[in-house]
Sequence to fold (580 residues):
Amino acid sequence: MKKVLHQKLNELQATAICGNDISSSCLYVSALTIMYAGQFAWISLLVVALVLFLFRKIYGEVVGAIPLNGGAYNVLLNTSTKRLASLAATLTVLSYMATAVISSIEAMHYLQGIIEGINVTMATLVVLIAFTGLAIMGIGESAFVAVIIFIIHLFTLSLLVLVSLWYLMGNGLETFHINWSMPLRAGGFVNALFFGFSAAMLGISGFESSSNFVEEQEQGVFRKTLRNMWGIVSFFNPVLALLLICIIPLTEVGAHKESLLAYLGHTTGGNWLAILISVDAVLVLCGAVLTSFVGVSGLLNRMTLDRVLPNYFLKQNKNGANYRIIISFLILCVSVLFVTKGHLESLAGVYTFSFLAVMALFGIGNLMLKIKRRKLPRPEKARGFAVVVAVGFIIVAFFGNIKLNTNSFFTFVSYLVPAFLLVSIMLNRSMLIKVSIDALEYFYKPLRRVVVLSNRYLNKMHTSVNSQTFVFFTKGDDVAILNKVMQYVQNNESTKKLKIVNVKNSSESNDLLIKDVEVLDRAYPEIDIEFVELEGVFGPEIIDDLSKQWGIPKNFMFIGSPGDRFSYRVADLGGVRLIM
Fold:
């Protein structure tokens, strides 16, 4: 499909799109953490800030090395198997789906507090449709709206902090001393920190969003978005929690947990500040909905290019938006809204466990990148020990949330299994079509005419699936390395055609390489191998020319992992995949 080009996002625009999602957590994560950690909630939130700091370099290393849309899916696709990568993608889509629905519902609950008589379900539906339309208009228009929401949100939170500090200067710390002496609900300091940390990890959901539309960002912007998101949540979440403990009695937190910051604003500044916070909550939660649509569009477009989803979704409008993906995501969100009847606990289970699993898989992908792609140039590196510690924290939070919300975990599994089953059908469609053909011929011999018509259609479909040609650019590697390439293609791609291309200068001889290819051709009779010699210098121009000449998308072209002496960045190659 022809790709429509659009203007790249600058630092403010990219930060606003993903920042609205992660910073919207400031509206509820303090209350949630205080419910479990009590007066030590701010410590739990500081630990979360530390974990997020570790993940800054983890994400920076991976996306710096392979700057393509897809997040965890992208790194696992280039370091492991397509099935594991598809699992990460499925989890990410579930996370975005839950984010969009939860944020819409919560926004309308806040709006209901301002304007009485609103039907929350119908209003949520209107929000989802409105942001679908905005996403279809294109990422430039989406970014403009996101920036406005983002600036208003930061202004509102900053104002709340300043007003609360002024309130403390005039009223003292009597409430803080009372709260500090309160018994802990969790039964001990360690338990309080553990459960508070587990609940507080909900406050960093959305940190992975920037990696799902990195190709739409200007060069160097991605790392800045990570820094900015980390700075925002690392400051506001602990500070707001500490201010709440200083001003609001812990016995009142439970009664106001759904709008605790608005209650803090009302206590410290009056009704005007409470209304401002409520309006801000509506806006920024709607901004989180927009983030979901932008993020899922980048991810599903990448999955479709890699044949994990049907090519039907690749169609773009004149603004460069994958409108079929966006509309399909809307349908999914609306169906979930009505199936769950807007039950927040069920949706929160899908939300929390999905994004925690995605972050853990991203950390694992980073470790695999270090092992399998150690020569691949990258702008920064995360220490292996730091990666293991970060993933360990995520695992602790995952099991902590299972203890806190066992029913929500089962809800998460009930969504994950059918979703991954659909993806698995796409990944194994070639085998399933072949089984269907054999089954029809065996079981329905009496209905010969029906079998002939059905098999004609299935054989046509089977041929279409297997006819896609893949390309591997070799430097003249030995037969053992080429054999690993064949195994990868056989285990991960539905194809029967592979071109092995060697770009060389006129003085080089390929006699040994030709013999190796002949050996492979006999070893893998089910795959049609074609060897192509080209004179020149391997780079983006040759890839562009061959992609146009052969009609093969660049993401169906593979290379081995380049070293530090390679003249180009992986991003310059237009989506060529790494498989060795």
Remarks:
- The beta strands are 469-474, 497-504, 528-535, 557-559, 577-578.
- The mean pLDDT is 83.
- Residues 42 and 238 are 5 Å apart (CA to CA).
